[in-house]
Amino acid sequence: MRRISRITVAGAATASLALALAACGSTSTSGSSDSKGNKGLAIAYDVGGKGDQSFNDAAYAGLEQAQKEFGYETADVEPTEGETDADKEQRLVSLAKQGYNPVIGVGYAYAAAVKGAAEKFPKTTFGIVDDATINTKNVADLVFNEEQASYLAGVAAARSTKSKVVGFVGGVDIPLIHKFQAGFEQGVKDTDPKVKVLSQYLTQTAEEGGFSSPDKGKSAAEGQIEKKADVVYAAAGLSGQGVIEAAATSKVWAIGVDSDQYQQAALAKYKDFILTSAMKDVAKAVYNLAKSVEDGKPETGIVRGDLKTGEVGLSNSNPKFADDAELQEAIKTAKEKIISGEIKVKSS
């Protein structure tokens, strides 16, 4: 196990890291390091970066928990616009060179970069969130059954709609987001076949801003609301903030994603219109990988979170949602059937 004391980081060490990473994204560090230079968890953000109130912020919450518990130095690095796989790999390599372990790429876009960096630093544990394609012995693929949480979101939407029209807004038209759509639509239809689901993707690629453009999310949601949708579910990263804003402005329900968006400070003025959030516990997955390294037994291979493990599910922060006994019973029943295998949720 690696245990190190809380010694203030020397300014030279922080400057060294900043210089090493200046070419491939801005960085923040926190905590302390020992005399050998051993450091702890580092994460490299996906599109949208810190402050998306969703996916990336959930990863940062895991980093904060690890830093607090293990008392070591951590780093989190922002993406840059128009970056290549080579840029991402350079970012991860720079972190590994500095002695960070584990190093996690937050998002499927890091697949090639994580594979390349892991091969160059076989003694460092790497992780990637939302990708299961890397077959390297020192890499943990942190993946989730998002479709299961989305099914429950569909149940909530179908039981909450008055217009019998609900909406789904996906950030980018890719297989990962298809899982959210498929689960949501199945949950809606299994609950009430008469409810119509309007589905829309913001962009074909992440480079076009599908995960990082609240204005695109707002416009898409407004279009669905004009077509009578009174519950709108967004799986769109930072763009989802625009969906939530549009829902609140029109006084209809929004369903958040990844983090409990009812609790996000940046969304506080809209929270009365956030019914629930379909969460996946990225924070827990990130923390668990850090803990496994700290304990000397690094996780590797596919590490999956689902309803059974408690790493996906719905938030209960909004009292109007939590106190609706019939709705809660319907969700509980659906959850039990998914866990038992009676309900098999589609992923595409």
From TrEMBL:
The keyword Cell membrane appears for this protein: yes
SUPFAM superfamilies: Periplasmic binding protein-like I
UniProt keyword list: Cell membrane, Lipoprotein, Membrane, Signal
Pfam families xref list: Bmp
Topology in membrane: Lipid-anchor
Domain ABC transporter substrate-binding protein PnrA-like positions: 46-347
Top-level taxonomic group: Bacteria
Primary subcellular site in the record, as a coarse category: membrane
Compartments, record wording: Cell membrane
Signal peptide residues on this chain, from the entry's feature table: 1-22
Membrane-spanning intervals of the chain: none
PROSITE patterns: PROKAR_LIPOPROTEIN
Family: Belongs to the BMP lipoprotein family.
Name used for this protein in its record: BMP family ABC transporter substrate-binding protein
Origin species: Streptomyces lomondensis
